[in-house]
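[Backbone geometry]
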Amino acid sequence: MRIALYGRGFGPDYDGLMKEVLRVLNDASIETIVFSGFMNDMKRCVGEDAEYQMFNSYEQLKGRADMLFSFGGDGTMLDSVEYVRDTAIPVFGINTGRLGFLSSVSPKETVGAVKMILNGDYDVEKRSLLELVGEAKRFNGINYALNELSVMRKDGSSLIVIQVFVDDKLLNTYWADGLILATPTGSTAYSLSAGGPIVAPNTDSFLITPISAHNLSVRPIVISDKSTVKIKVDGRCDEYDLNLDSRTKLVNKDLQLEVKKADFSFMMVKLHGKDFFQAIRNKLLWGNDVRN
């Protein structure tokens, strides 16, 4: 088995955890390949003279790993999309960040979780991705989002007018600060904060959630992920923010966006004994009632 290690970096507080993970992998004769931006921190754990195979791009990772371990928070997990893309490499999230909804394994659970993976005691869930198509390809070929695509007014500017078409039929015109088009995975992220519903990850759907709409009757809506969504933005400003997960571009309002479901999935590792409903109860305190 070949495992890639990915992350933005880690502080000295996690040196002990990394040493334990590396020990378990070495004892099992696992071949490892390390993200180059992660290597500087790893050297504190393995020594300056340690040599590892490294990767720094999708092309350098493709065909060289059977699984990727993502060390960090949910943002790091989202960033890993850039490197795995359509390789079908499963991604296992180890939470060294804060909430850790996607990267759900805590530091104290990590060593046991790695041993479970080496023993094959896990499942792989397919998570759908959004793809930005057409002339709006502005993200250096990484036109995919695991959580959401959003359009936002520039800081300090007035409301924007957002027309949304589903399969070329007008859905609605929103006067708002912005709009979120989310996957089921993204339903527990920004969309949830904007008042959208929680959608189970195996649901074949997209979720459209307005941000601070200037109309009390406007509500989020769930549509089929087989649909193509087109978005047109107007307003007093000539530009607006276009976001794919944590990546942002400033684009001209004349640009029409076209979004569809990507033709490949993000493969997420889930340990036996952990499930989505457990996660929303524990991480989001869903259904928690202090009276009970």
Summary: The mean pLDDT is 91. The first helix runs from residue 15 to 27.
